[in-house]
Design brief:
Elements lengths: L1 E3 L3 H13 L5 E3 L2 H11 L6 E4 L1 E2 L2 E2 H12 L5 E5 L4 H9 L3 E4 L4 H18 L1
Parallel strand pairs: 1-2, 1-3, 3-6, 6-7
Antiparallel strand pairs: 4-5
C-alpha cells in the first residue's frame, strides 16, 4: 500500500494502523516522494491511500499519474475533509473510493477487505 499525505503524523498513524493489519506500507508526502519510495523498494503497489489536498497538487491527479505509470487501474482511496460535490464527482469519475476525514478504521478496513476479495475472485 502506498500512502501519500503531506502530514507526517498522519503517515505515521497510517503506517501503524495498516501494518497492524499485515499490510506492507510505503509512505510519502507527495507524488514525487511516492514514486521514489516505490522505485527504491522495488515493489509495485497493490493499492493507494492518498489525501486530496497535497502540497503542489491533489490526490486525484496523483492517483491518475500512478495508474498511468504502472499501466493498470490500481485500487485507490481518496481521503479528504472536503465534502463538496465536485470532489465526490471527480473521484467517482476516476473510479476512486472516497473516505471522509476523520477516517474511521472500520470503514478503511472494509474497503481493503473488498479489494482482497475482488483480487482473489479475479485470479
Amino acid at each position: 500500500m502506498l500512502c501519500i499525505d503531506n502530514e507526517p503524523s498522519i503517515l505515521d498513524a497510517m503506517r501503524v494502523l495498516l501494518g497492524g493489519w499485515d499490510c506492507r506500507v510505503l509512505t510519502a508526502t507527495d507524488l514525487a516522494a511516492g514514486l521514489a519510495a516505490l522505485a527504491g523498494s522495488g515493489l509495485e503497489p497493490d493499492g493507494l491511500l492518498v489525501d486530496y489536498h497535497l502540497d503542489g497538487g491533489n490526490g486525484i491527479a496523483a492517483i491518475a499519474e500512478l495508474r498511468r505509470r504502472y499501466g493498470r487501474d490500481l485500487p485507490a482511496i481518496l481521503v479528504t475533509a472536503d465534502r463538496s460535490v465536485p470532489v465526490r464527482e471527480e473521484a467517482r469519475a476516476e473510479g476512486v473510493q472516497l473516505l471522509n476525514k476523520p477516517v474511521k478504521p472500520a470503514a478503511l478496513r472494509a474497503l481493503l477487505t473488498q479489494w482482497r476479495v475482488q483480487r482473489v475472485a479475479a485470479e
